[in-house]
Amino acid sequence: MIGQRQTLLDARDRVTGRIPYTINLEPPGTLHVAILRSTVPHARLVRVDASAASQLPGVAAVLTRDDFAGSSIRPLFGPVFRDQPIVAMDRVRYVGEPVAAVAATDLRAAEAALESIEVEYEELPAVFTPQDALAAGAPLLHESFDDRAPGYADIVLQGQGGNVCNKFQLRKGDGLAGFELADEIFEHEFSSPPVQHVSMEPHAAVASFEGDYLTVHTCTQTPYAVRDALAYMFRLPASHVRVVVPPVGGGFGGKTYAKVEPLAAVLSKMTHRPVKVHLTREEEFVTNRKHQAFIKLRTGMRRDGTIVAREVQALFNAGAYTDISPRLIKNGGYGAVGPYRISHVHIDSYAVFTNLPSAGAFRGYGVSQGSWAYESQMDMIAEAMGFDPIELRMRNLLLEGDTFATGETLHGIRFPEVLRDATTLFEAGRVPPPAEDDGSVKRGRGCAVIIKSTITPSTSAASVKLNSDGSLQVLTSTVDMGQGAHTALSQIAASALGVGVGSIGVVGPDTDVTPFDLTTSSSRSTAAMGAAVREAVFDVRRQLLDLAAQQMEVDVTDLELADGRISVVGDPASGRSIAEVVTASRRGTLAGNGSFVTEGGLHPETGQGIASEHWHQGAVAAEVDVDVATGKVTVRGLRASVYAGTVVNPINARMQIDGSVSFGISQALFEQLIHDEGHPANSSLSEYALAGLADLPEVFEVSLIEDPDNDEMHGLGETCLPPVMPAIANAVADAVGVRIRHLPLTAERVLDALEEQR
Amino acid sequence: MIGQRQTLLDARDRVTGRIPYTINLEPPGTLHVAILRSTVPHARLVRVDASAASQLPGVAAVLTRDDFAGSSIRPLFGPVFRDQPIVAMDRVRYVGEPVAAVAATDLRAAEAALESIEVEYEELPAVFTPQDALAAGAPLLHESFDDRAPGYADIVLQGQGGNVCNKFQLRKGDGLAGFELADEIFEHEFSSPPVQHVSMEPHAAVASFEGDYLTVHTCTQTPYAVRDALAYMFRLPASHVRVVVPPVGGGFGGKTYAKVEPLAAVLSKMTHRPVKVHLTREEEFVTNRKHQAFIKLRTGMRRDGTIVAREVQALFNAGAYTDISPRLIKNGGYGAVGPYRISHVHIDSYAVFTNLPSAGAFRGYGVSQGSWAYESQMDMIAEAMGFDPIELRMRNLLLEGDTFATGETLHGIRFPEVLRDATTLFEAGRVPPPAEDDGSVKRGRGCAVIIKSTITPSTSAASVKLNSDGSLQVLTSTVDMGQGAHTALSQIAASALGVGVGSIGVVGPDTDVTPFDLTTSSSRSTAAMGAAVREAVFDVRRQLLDLAAQQMEVDVTDLELADGRISVVGDPASGRSIAEVVTASRRGTLAGNGSFVTEGGLHPETGQGIASEHWHQGAVAAEVDVDVATGKVTVRGLRASVYAGTVVNPINARMQIDGSVSFGISQALFEQLIHDEGHPANSSLSEYALAGLADLPEVFEVSLIEDPDNDEMHGLGETCLPPVMPAIANAVADAVGVRIRHLPLTAERVLDALEEQR
User: Fold this and answer.
1) Measured between CB atoms, does B243 come within 8 Å of chain A?
2) Which of A289, A622, B424, B686 is 20 to 30 A away from residue A134, measured at CA?
3) Considering chain A, what is the average pLDDT of its residues?
4) B614: contact with A, CB 8 A cutoff
């Protein structure tokens, strides 16, 4: 089953809309929610009066800060520091922040009631960029916060003060002193704008309190984190909070950690009815986003093209609340070193509060911002020093057994192979010339190669249930959000048991019954949960062989299991089916358990330690046409290469790369969230520009590099996103000689640069 | 926790109606079903034409036999022999049998469409009593049937032919020759009418096919049996059929095995939409029922009061289809021997097909019918031979180590104690005299004692999931149908882990995730599933101690777990909490598994073997007033005693007895399903007489006899039902000297008997 092309098991149901997405759930008696949101970026909340609204027909409850007075419910939540209110308490900190929420029998009644809620703001000065937020005299967003959630002991409260949310630092070798060894030093600043995940399915949750038992159906990527957040919020044992995740319509990091679930749950607690929160597209734009980042990169080069020192100063715009910023700036910090052998490294990476919506996890997880910087600069250095950009990379790329910036020894390293593979795109004749070349269209080539970690330490556990007919249920808390995780896990389970995929059913996530999993993100599910599932199947397989040995009165070491039958080695006729063995055991069902736990962590002062159980390695080569008359960039050819270890499902794997590249092209050319003094200016799909299918290259190649001698599975859900943007920018520079250091490469920006150049 | 009074965990939600009963479920897009039912008791189905109906507005599908032509769906189902069609195929066999079914967007549209379905019957002669059905020349209901479901290898096709559905026989000692040792022989016939379960919640199911994956929410007592029936029907692996059982509003046996689920599932398969079937009360009356029974009892007595021989000839009216009759007539057969030491036993017990709705499991499971016979006859023998009825019983009651009719040696036997305890009701002054005694009210006393098996062999399995905060989920396929099973299992789990009940969450049944359980019936859940849960908790407890030993660097044998903390024996300060150990293990959750499997079975020719893992023992004493002017019987006092082993929850246990006695009084005095040539004559709650609260005795005592030296839990959900009817009949005979051998003891029947006596 491993390595076979398997159509996604739920493909037909996803496409036909038959899947019970959370947005389609509506238990009888469900109340619907409309949210009153702040119209100002920063203010003291003088008055919130919901007395008139709560009397309106159809309105079951209006939640304001007053409802927490004297309540045992904890009003603040957050995955690391609990600093985010369900509805604003003393202050609002961004335009769009929930101030009050109405639960009513239908959505129109809820929306109508919003108009009757009276809110009085006393506006405060606001800041919108990390630079402004760090300036002397900047208004403070948070006086103090240290209510830390468990599981984040490694996140120290370092760097805090002013508007610093958190700081990550790394010191390797001689740090800044390493620059003394350099012949040339290059220093540039690069920036990436905030962008939105734009999942097809918006955030939605249906919460239902029955007595002191809370059930929440939600499209989260982190069911256990949401369960634990709600248990803490309502002071319940974890066994009384059930988080069920139906199939999800896209996550991309945007659905990690509690988002709309606390609001739905509090309103259900108040009304004793199921409560559904379902965000509009406009609300999506103020709910989560990619971190805006400003990265200053200083690189010390030896004359021979060796990188000897690198300094990273990264400012990540966290927005108003912490969310997962302290983790992300770590990855964004050490991830900005790149896949290069550099002896001396000095990193300061900051998450900074501003009066904008909170930023959180986003496909690429900080690495996009860093690689945008270092892979752009790599070409700038190559040009300045007269090297071929591919050769310059090759000279410095990390090799098997090398030491990374974190001090850990690397294994399973294939950077040169990945980069070489990607750049085969440049072989003559692969990408057709510009269609109508009136001289205004210039062709250019660029490439980029990146390194990305997977969350470490981490834990995934799985259970399996073998039925009396020999079919098997896999119980997993891995979320299927369209990436095909459940299909891949089915293949892994089927392979481990020696049966067909059709015998497998995958269940979960459902925190009442499916074992712990840290998160469906970080490109980790196939590798981590796959290993846990395999162990669980092996557990049940051992039991099966033991039972068969008893039943057949032979020694278990004489038995083998193949094609759903257990027989004495070399005597297939002696066999009996799995179903026969389970039935004869009279146990009804057999249970197996497995887990996959990785160890790691970085020292808070030096950033030294183990950052990743294995490393994601990807490269992209791009050929672009730049129309110098309009500034328009067209990606004509693109080859994405990734080291995959063992590919479980080639269809899935290919689609993951397709998706990553699409995201990358979209961010390279179009995407940016625009604000006007904190007010969102393009919060709708008619105003927010995204790549469409027509923007994908006509030559679009995906290469999955496997290792036949190694059955280790490498995650690949994000790897080919970060290199797309610098590869395209490098190709633009190659085509027309302008270097754009600020994403996206819109036609206007390219045209401006061209005009500046003239 | 064991033995503590624990309010049912879902009591408040049940009473306030907040529980998501199946009848309250309605996923978006749900279709509703109306069923066209046969208007004749027996006919060849000449024509079913749904062409007009299927064109009506709102109608999504009309199911008739034609839909199975060329379909891979198997149209017949049944727990033992698959002889019951989803909708009638070639014939109808009872009034009320489904002939066609309409799925429409709302129930009114579905009901309206029924009128447009054209059905042509060719009527056939019909039979309604087992006696008529066995008579020469009786019309045959089934030509042949031998499509046996797995798990019933012990049910041989014996006795079939004519209208015999199945036969059970038992031969012990010298059988009929044993009567040669008797000084006196008593022979009487007794009958019990069919009665209805009248659960508060009717049968309901919501089925939903997504691709080749079927999910059914249903109020069944046997989720795994329903899953297997549906998997077979649709030719799916068990891993693709998910049966979820929400809290159930009463079962009493009536919700065992597939009932409305196949119909809902087929219609969902046809329409690709969720389909809900929800029976009306009138439909309930033709869906399941207690077996009507005619039992001829011949008892050979020694002059000293010793019973030496007993012959049982039992005819159980199976109705039109097999359902579970072959199992029930076994229990009804050996159960008719009673709790007495009898050396020579000869039993022939028949299930017979008739043109009435099928009979199935009913609280008491065949034992009510048998004990109605033997405990009535016991008093008749005592009177005829001049013995005190209690003393006659005492002389013959089975004792520890005795051999039952099945040849098995009995253990945990407390019959004399149970009977003695019940009859303490008769101590002077316990029951007040008749309120207005104008001479027409006569007081009488009666008692009865019964033996009942629990289904054997059987299997229950459980899993537990220990969370990182130390709380625990119990995964069980035991159905909570108001009997408080989940509360009892919570107590057992809490006790085994050494934590409070508040830390426990119970999940299930959900065949995708909760392990196999044979059935929630036969008074078995607390004992069987309780043992499985305990073993599963012990499994996780062992892992917990091993982890703690590693973490604390001590030997595991030096550790103890108490009050949620693990510490070195004798050094409580050394302890750490369960939560700390799980968290430090980094496994996220720990899984434990347990099972409880009993062995047994009876020889098909002799009925010898193991019938029951342990035996239910109950006695009832009753004082009644009989108004000789009206025939009205009023139960004034009643004491029910049961051997309980260890009582897990005294509140629950007491309520189980309350409920059993209420059922018994209702069946003793009021209940009977009446038919007029096969047409139901009282299929509504305005016509079908049931006991109300006012019919319960003012002195109503329940005694749970425990064994402090034994932690074995004995089932007690049914034990005190069967003795109620004969105890009351015996009291009536004691009061006014009339012996009524046919239930119920309606005022009319008592008055008739009194007039006959005059």
Assistant:
1) no
2) A289
3) 95
4) no
